Amino acid sequence: MTPNGLFECKLAVAAGSAAPPPPTAACYAALKHADLPCFCTFKNNIYLPLFGIDSTRAMQLPTKCDPNQIAHC
């Protein structure tokens, strides 16, 4: 996933918001090209909150975009 792709998904995984918006079409497109094993390395990453990212929401993102695209972390 490119940095632009990550940016497209940021609102959907924002920390602190009660109900983040659903992933955008651009986020869906970016996730289709994501390397899910690499994506899993960010599970429980201590640095994600520094960027305003909720790691639990981030790990749910692939399934929200495509129910068949499960990140087995």
UniProtKB/TrEMBL annotation:
SUPFAM superfamilies recorded: Bifunctional inhibitor/lipid-transfer protein/seed storage 2S albumin
A Pfam entry, by short name: LTP_2
**Boundaries of each Bifunctional inhibitor/plant lipid transfer protein/seed storage helical domain copy?**
4-69
> What's this protein's name?
Bifunctional inhibitor/plant lipid transfer protein/seed storage helical domain-containing protein
Q: Which domain of life is it from?
A: Eukaryota
- Origin organism is Buddleja alternifolia
